[in-house]
């Protein structure tokens, strides 16, 4: 009786490349992974581009809003500056009007002081009071104007007397009957003056004599040279 020696079950020989290839399921999963890996960068680029476009649009909106707010602020600042200038101008105007109304009531007193000074009656305590009054009104901005010999200006002069004079070439103030007063550019009272105009025939006679002298020079060949 022959005895069989126990041993390992023999397995059929399997090619090495078949074992390394793996199962069909493993092959399919590898292909899907490869496709996913190949398509992932393209999707990320598209998403990043969309985000850039959205951020750019938001940035443009912010810049537009900033420009609008800046323009509004500049406009408000300009309006405020104009308001301040207008208020300051109105304040000065109101101050001048109030001072003019007050000083207008004092002009007769100043006229009396001026006449007393001309007649030498401004002496003693009356002189001190008069000088103090003139100092106060000067501080309030009151200015006296009107001098003899200046050209007549109807905007600041009031002619109360009229005459002709051979020694004037234009209408001239020859006497100041009452001085004028102003505050700044505001005239409180025009200067009341006596005016003189050139003689009606003096100008024509002067022009005729000049024409005769010119004609004589032309006939003689011009003025004599020294």
Automatic annotation (TrEMBL):
The keyword Protease does not apply. Gene3D superfamilies: 3.90.20.20, Head domain of nucleotide exchange factor GrpE. Keywords: Chaperone, Coiled coil, Cytoplasm, Stress response. One of its GO terms (cellular component) is cytoplasm. GO terms for biological process: protein folding. Residues 208-217 have a biased composition (Basic and acidic residues). CDD domains: GrpE. Its main location: cytoplasm. Residues 59-93 form a coiled coil. It holds the Pfam family GrpE. PANTHER family: GRPE PROTEIN, GRPE PROTEIN HOMOLOG, MITOCHONDRIAL. Participates actively in the response to hyperosmotic and heat shock by preventing the aggregation of stress-denatured proteins, in association with DnaK and GrpE. It is the nucleotide exchange factor for DnaK and may function as a thermosensor. Unfolded proteins bind initially to DnaJ; upon interaction with the DnaJ-bound protein, DnaK hydrolyzes its bound ATP, resulting in the formation of a stable complex. GrpE releases ADP from DnaK; ATP binding to DnaK triggers the release of the substrate protein, thus completing the reaction cycle. This is Protein GrpE. The lineage of its organism: Bacteria, Bacillati, Actinomycetota, Actinomycetes, Kitasatosporales.
